[in-house]
Design brief:
The protein is of the alpha+beta class and 240 residues long. It is built from five helices and eight strands; from the N terminus they run E-E-E-E-E-H-H-H-E-E-E-H-H. Strand 1 and strand 2 form a beta hairpin. Helix 1 (85-100) packs parallel to helix 3 (130-142), helix 2 (107-123) packs antiparallel against helix 3 (130-142) and helix 4 (187-198) crosses helix 5 (211-229). Bound molecules: zinc ion.
Length: 240
């Protein structure tokens, strides 16, 4: 059976001499593995389709226990990312997140966010880490555990001067509601989380956040990600 999916390459592994197994994240079916035959040479017709970030319409032939990619219409390779190491690391962090999640019903929402975040990193002059932070907030929302609430998620009162993240439930709470597994956020961190939760990817270029604040917020969101999904994000080039 032949099927067509709109998908982005998350990663690929070598198999046999010239073949590659590719992990696709598709809008129709979530994550699927498929094989690209004879693509390891420079002259291979579909060589771009094995590269992470390659976004396109993939035609897949379903056989007994195997999926073979027979053609690809490339929409965007995002090859611009490879020319800026910081952008490359930030964009790779997005793929690491998708790779570590079980994608089921959230696939459409997540796919749209991923493409918007990648476009923002590759083509817009946004402050460092803002698209990645926004994508992480989108992930929490897509999985039914949105992080940001304008008032304490526990009692409904204003945060007043202090706001805490409760890693146990993945919510923001006031001083009166803080318990074990909570960490205080700075006013600057709360502002980042609020701004990114309330704005679209298009608006990111108008938001200026100090890199240090963005980095510390990234650490908090990665800790919350671990509590929600039990997956440790490495974020190569960012955390180490
Ligand atoms: Zn409270």
């Amino acid at each position: 059976m032949t099927k067509k999916v709109k998908a982005i390459v998350i990663k690929s592994n070598d198999i046999k001499e010239k073949d590659k197994n590719v992990l696709l994240f598709s809008i129709e079916e979530g994550k699927i593995w498929a094989t690209l035959k004879g693509v390891r040479g420079d002259k291979a017709k579909m060589k771009y389709a094995k590269e992470p970030f390659c976004f396109g319409d993939f035609v897949i032939e379903e056989g007994k226990g195997s999926n073979i990619i027979t053609s690809v219409d490339i929409i965007e390779t995002f090859d611009k990312l490879s020319k800026d190491i910081d952008k490359y690391f930030e964009a790779s962090a997005l793929l690491e997140i998708v790779n570590s999640l079980n994608v089921a019903n959230e696939k459409y929402e997540l796919f749209v966010s991923l493409i918007k975040a990648l476009k923002s990193i590759a083509f817009e002059s946004t402050s460092k880490y803002l698209p990645l932070l926004k994508f992480m907030l989108d992930v929490f929302s897509a999985y039914g555990v949105p992080l940001y609430t304008p008032k304490c998620a526990c009692c409904g009162n204003e945060y007043h001067d202090h706001v805490f993240i409760n890693y146990n439930v993945g919510e923001l709470v006031c001083q009166a509601c803080k318990s074990f597994q909570t960490e205080e956020l700075s006013a600057a961190q709360l502002k980042v989380i609020k701004l990114l939760s309330e704005n679209t990817y298009d608006a990111l270029k108008t938001i200026k956040i100090p890199q240090e604040t963005a980095f510390l917020t990234l650490k908090v969101l990665a800790a919350n990600f671990y509590s929600r999904f039990e997956k440790n994000l490495k974020f190569i080039g960012i955390f180490n």
